[in-house]
Amino acid sequence: MKKRILIVEDEKNIARFMELELQHEYFDVSVTYDGREGLNRALEQDFDCLLLDVMLPGLNGIEICRRVRAKSDVPIILITARDAVMDRVAGLDSGADDYIVKPFAIEELLARIRSVLRRTQGNEKEIEKDDVIHVRDLVIKPQSYEVFFENKKLELTKTEYDLLKLLCENKNRVCEREMILQSVWGYNTEVETNVVDVYIRHLRSKLKTESTPYIETVRGVGYVVRE
């Protein structure tokens, strides 16, 4: 079955270029040029990946990302301007899985799409065989894709979940940044290592505790979850 992709991009030439290239790669592609319509379609229809331009009429891509992420774990890739560093940071903070900077080569976009889809497919295959993971007051249930912290359900994005699960599966073992990138974002990813730091910050904000922090930084190496 073809994977369904929604493009929300107000520059019609760019939108048409992406649509044709993705259709050539056998994706089922839908396109809209308005932010509010894009949000409605993303919430009302089933897609395997969303491509959101940041600057959109009606509603910007970061706000769309935030609202979609509150209800869905669908992979989201933001399309940003080269000098819009804060947009990229805000996008990741709002739950985006990845971003790509204009102008971009179609090969790079395809690689990023394959990466987020591969992570989704890989986790679906692992759910049935994995056992519950315990670390102190943290419980991860792969079969139901749930995380509980201090007996309360923790709301995580898909990438946050994948990262936390990886660290907990390797508890007491330092995970290097490159290893984290390959495991969570995929071997062919073009994501920079500082994205790992952004998502670690997300997790730490959700795992606040008065005792020893769950995620420890090993300077110059990576991160570790200690029992």
Could you please describe the fold and organization of this structure?
The chain has 227 residues and is α/β, with parallel strands linked by helices. The protein contains eight helices and twelve strands. It has helices at 12-24, 35-44, 61-69, 85-93, 106-126, 158-169, 177-185, 194-206; strands at 4-8, 28-32, 49-53, 76-80, 98-101, 133-135, 138-141, 146-149, 152-153, 175-176, 215-218, 222-225. The strands form three sheets. The protein has a five-stranded parallel β-sheet, with helices on both faces. Strands 6-7-8-9 form a four-stranded antiparallel β-sheet, with helices on one face. Strands 10-12-11 form a three-stranded antiparallel β-sheet. Strand 1, helix 1 and strand 2 (28-32) form a beta-alpha-beta unit. Helix 2 runs parallel beside helix 3 (61-69), helix 6 packs across helix 7 and helix 6 packs across helix 8 (194-206). The longest helix has 21 residues, at 106-126. The protein is elongated. It starts with a strand and ends with a strand.
